[in-house]
Structures are given as C-alpha cells and as structure tokens.
Amino acid sequence: MENQNSNFIRDIMIKDLESGKRDTIVTRFPPEPNGYLHIGHAKSIILNFGLADEFNGKTNLRFDDTNPAKEDVEFVNSIKEDVKWLGFEWDNLFFASDYFDEMYNRAVLLIKKGLAYVDDLSADEIREYRGTLTEPGKNSPYRDRTIEENLELFERMRAGEFADGEKVLRAKIDMASPNINLRDPVIYRIAHVTHHNTGDKWCIYPMYAFAHPLEDAIEGITHSICTIEFEDQRPFYNWVVEQCEMKHQPQQIEFGRLNLTNTVMSKRKLKQLVEEGYVDGWDDPRMPTISGMRRRGFTPESIRNFVRETAVSKNNATVDFEMLEHFVREDLKLKAPRTMGIINPLKVVITNYPEGQIELLDAEINPENPEMGVRKIPFSREIYIEQEDFMENPPKKYFRLFPGNEVRLKHAYFIKCEEIVKDANGNVVELRCTYDPQTKSGSGFTGRKVKGTIHWVEATHAVPAEFRLYEPLILNESEEDDEGTFLDHVNPNSLQIFHGYVEPNMKESRPHDKFQFFRHGYFNVDPKDTTVDKLVFNRIVSLKSSFKL
Ligand code: ATP
Ligand code: MG
Ligand code: MG
User: Fold this and answer.
1) What was the pLDDT predicted at 1?
2) Position in ligand 1 atom list of the atom nearest CA 32
3) Residue numbers of motif 'KMSKS' region (predicted)?
C-alpha cells in the first residue's frame, strides 16, 4: 500500500467538507509549458491528484500558458505524457489562454471600478517607484488618469498601437502597503509575440499573479495548492477574486518545495544544462526530470512512494537522493529478474574443461521471489569475468581471484587461477584456470570452502552490451548554495561508459526492461540508444545503500 502520511492540506480539506464550506474537492495541477517536469513537480502532482482522489474530487490539468515567449507545444506534450506515466488522469484539460477573453473583460471591469490604470512608466521606473521593505512606494504620475482615458488606452494597447514595454495596466491598490505585492502590481503587459494556442490574436498578456486566481475561480477550484514563495501573493490573489467579482472563491494553500541533494531543480537551470550540452537532452538519465528518471529506469511506483514519504510542510526541504534510490530498490527487489553481466571483461580459459563442450546450468531468476522460476545459462571452457575480480598482487583480505587462489563462480563451479597471460605491454589479457567438477553449484558439495564468489558470462554465447554508470550531476549539496555558479559544480564523471557482455537470453530484452545484475545493481534497457544490434543498459542504482528510513 502506498504511504498515507498525514498532511495539513488534507486536514484543511476534511474540515472544509465537514463544516459545509465545500461540498466537493476540485484541484488543479498548473504547469507552465516552458520545460519538462521534474521530481519537484511530482510532489505537486501527487498532492493535487492524490488528495482529490481521496475525496472523490476532480483534478484539472491546466497549462498556465500566459507567457508565450518561453512556451512550446513540445513541453505541453511531454507534460501530458509524464503526468499519465506517473499514474494520474485529469478530469479536464485546460489552457489558461482559453480564458484570455474573460481575463480581458475582468481587467476592463477593474478599470471601470477605478481599480486599474494604464501606466507609461518603464519597467525600471516602476521598480524604482515600488519602494523597499522599509520604505513605502511612490505613486506613478499616471495613477490618476480618468476611467475613460484608461479604458481608451487599454483598448489601444490591445489593438497593437504601442510597442512592447511602452505601457502596462496596473491594479490600483496601495503604494504604501507593507506587502510589496499590493503596491499597484502590473496585471497586463504588451508582448508582440505569437502564442502557441492563440496565435496572433493578442499582443497583450495577463501577468501570472492576475491570471492565476482568475483561472482557479473560473474552473471552480476549491483548494489552489502552490509552493511557499507565493505566500506573500495570497492577499493579491484574494483581491483579484473579490474585485473581479468572481462567483467562485478558491482558497490558496502554500507548501514547501521539494529539492534533492546533488542536483539542480529549477527549469531555468535544467534548460541551461540541456542547451549548453552538459547532458543529452531533457531526458538524459542524470536529469531530475520525470522523463530522465523514466529513461534511467525509475518506476512510477518508486517515485510516488518516495514523494509520499516526504513531509508536506510550510518549509522547502532538500531530501537526500539516496532516499529516492532506496525506494526504487524496494520496488524492483521482487520484480526485476536477476542476471549476470560483465562490465569490464577479462577472458578466462578453463584448461581442464573439455573443448567444444557446452553445458546448461540452472540459475534462479530471483531468489527473493522464487515464483519467477529458473533460467538456463551456458557454461564452457571460455568465460569472461570482471577485471576487478582479479589481482596479480592482492592486498590482505582480497578474496577474489589471484594466482593460486580458488573462488566460486556463481551458479557454476570453483575455479583456481593457475597462470596469467600478458600482452607485450605487461597487461593481463587472459587467465588460465582449472575447475573442480565436484564443486558444481547445487550438488551439495561441502569438501572445502572458498571466501569469494564472482560472476561470469560464457564467452562464445555472450551478447555484447554497453553499460552506462552514473554519478551525481552536480557535486555540491543542494541548489540553494550556488545560485549562478552551479555550472562550476557539474561533475565531469557523471557518466561512465563501459563495453562488456551479458547472458545470451538477454538478447530478447526490450526497452525499459529492468534487471538486477548480480553485484552491480539495477539496470534499465535504454529506450533511446538500444538498437537490434546494440543493447544499452543504464544503471538505475547500485545495490549498496547506507540509507535507512
Ligand atoms: P521551476 O521553478 O522549477 O521552474 P515552477 O514553479 O516555475 O518550477 P511550474 O510549471 O509553474 O514550475 O509549476 C507547476 C506546479 O508545480 C506549481 O504549482 C509549482 O508550485 C509546483 N512545483 C514546481 N516545482 C516544485 C518543487 N520543487 N516542489 C514542489 N512543487 C513544485
Ligand atoms: Mg513557473
Ligand atoms: Mg520558476
């Protein structure tokens, strides 16, 4: 069962239903289509969709597309795909741009009520006039334009008579308000930009802080869940709903953002990593995007379980990446077939094994889930092992192969290293070993013990494969520390590529199949670069963990 920790937003919903303030729950997930979704968004998705589901309510997917310069249909499509993949279905799909007419009419209503005016100050002047936390703002010289003049100028803004930045429409509230967001915020700006949905119909666009409460009210949203940085915007949110005379009154509720260690999360920074070529696109397996995590091999269940375990609070929280890894291991433990793969091969010839003979050995598919059955793996005179499982001059407590030492081959026999073959440069290129037929796995042999067990792949049937191992993308702790300089902390070793071998039955694997490679961890068949001739495995996570829940 998925975790159902208590959270204060659910408590508000319960209270509102019990008191009769609301008779149903309606939420929305409102991404701006200016990038791909990331794991932080998953938290918002799970809160909005998850809570509405608990109360048999409804959730809209709404694209907050009021800033056409940065938005694109590519992002719209990826967002839809990611929400579905995470396991959620929206009741309605809306675009904020569908409401541009109504938003315009509400702005006109504000002008008619004397609550909005057209201002000719430049953006810099508006900022200057706004004042600071300790100093009140100053009124714009254009603040006292008549209603008629404002109506006419706003209409001419809409008709395209002015250039970008020449004029704005501002709410008329209070330039001395202790809340800077109430010092006559801009509610419409001019932007001669083609919109992905409305084309060239508009050259003025509503500002987010004005548009968002209207969108929520139009859709009958009961609980408008957003991140904590909007807390100071709440008075303006309520002002817009009230003064625009919206029938429905939504309630804004803020919660703390989810961040992860060793990555950046804001779309602006992720975009920079993509555009400057640090990663192979938004879906690069090192990215904290939903599409990157899917390509890496994280499952929707693991992401949901992880997010549900993080607290819902008023504070932004940076959660250890290892906690996410813990949840994917938990999810794959019983599902992923076990197999053996050699990432960095070293050839071994078993000199006393009959030439030309192949035998098929039994290997459990998942010892923790015996119902998954048994697979057959070939064994012969020639196998591959990992280079790191052999040392010519081992330190103490090295229990793997070295000259004269005996180890167990998983699912097979004991072998003993008799001879080393080197190339002209002195590199070890082959080992010559002997095996003991009595020690066959499953035979019940107890004659003697060995301390090391290593994995292997039979050489003549082995399937070549590429392995991609990952380290964190960013080398310092969290995004808060490094505003502006995060590119200096990009890990140059975040991707390592190896060419090795996998068991012959892996030939059948399909994109997104997940396996536990013995001793190496969980891997996903890469959906982008795997071809009929080339298998690519992305390491999702290693087996070792220091993380404790
Ligand atoms: P970013 O700062 O990463 O660009 P955003 O807030 O601008 O994110 P939106 O597309 O506006 O991105 O976000 C859609 C919803 O997801 C919003 O309600 C937003 O508050 C929420 N959200 C975004 N990032 C996080 C996060 N790290 N943790 C929790 N919720 C988030
Ligand atoms: Mg945004
Ligand atoms: Mg943002």
Assistant:
1) 35
2) 10
3) 264-268
With a 6 Å cutoff on the Cβ, whether 318 touches ligand 1 is no
CA distances in angstroms from 53 to 5, 10, 11, listed in the order given? 15, 11, 15
267 ligand 1 Cβ < 6 A: yes
Q: According to CATH, what is the number of the domain 8-255?
A: 3.40.50.620
> From the CB of 41, is ligand 1 less than 6 Å away?
yes
Query: Of the residues 227, 266, 272, which should be mutated to test ligand 1's pocket, given the most ligand atoms within 8 Å of the CB?
Result: 227
> Is residue 172 among the annotated active site residues?
no
Model confidence over 466-476: pLDDT tens digits? 999 999 999 87
Query: For the chain, what are the domain ranges?
Result: 8-255, 260-337+465-541, 341-455
Q: Is 549 annotated as a binding residue?
A: no
Asked if 296 is an active-site residue, the reply is: no
32 is catalytic: yes
Burial level of 373, CB count in 10 A (0-12/13-18/19+)?
exposed
Q: How far is the CA of 32 from the centre of ligand 2 (A)?
A: 6
- Tokens 């309510």 belong to which residue? 57
The identity of residue 396, as a single letter, is K
pLDDT at 19: 98
Q: What is the arithmetic mean of pLDDT over 284-312?
A: 97
Domain covering 260-337+465-541: architecture = Orthogonal Bundle (1.10)
From the alpha carbon of 37, which atom of ligand 1 is closest? 10
What angle, 0 to 180 degrees and rounded to 10, lies between the N-to-C axes of helices 300-309 and 39-54? 80
Identify the nearest ligand to the CA of 38 by its number.
1
Residue 122 assigned to a binding site: no
Q: What is the pLDDT of residue 532?
A: 87
If you take atom 18 of ligand 1, which residue's CA is the nearest one? Answer: 226
* Residues present in the chain in total: 549
- Strands of the 514-517 sheet, one edge to the other: 338-339, 514-517, 521-525, 535-541, 463-470, 495-502, 341-342
Q: How buried is 148 (Cβ within 10 angstroms: 0-12 exposed, 13-18 middle, 19+ buried)?
A: exposed
Of 143, 257, 375, 519, the catalytic one is: 257
pLDDT of residue 549: 60
**pTM for the whole structure:** 0.93
Digit-coded pLDDT (tens) for 61-114: 999 999 988 888 999 999 999 999 999 999 999 999 999 999 999 999 999 999
Closest CA to 165 of 199, 195, 124, 104: 124
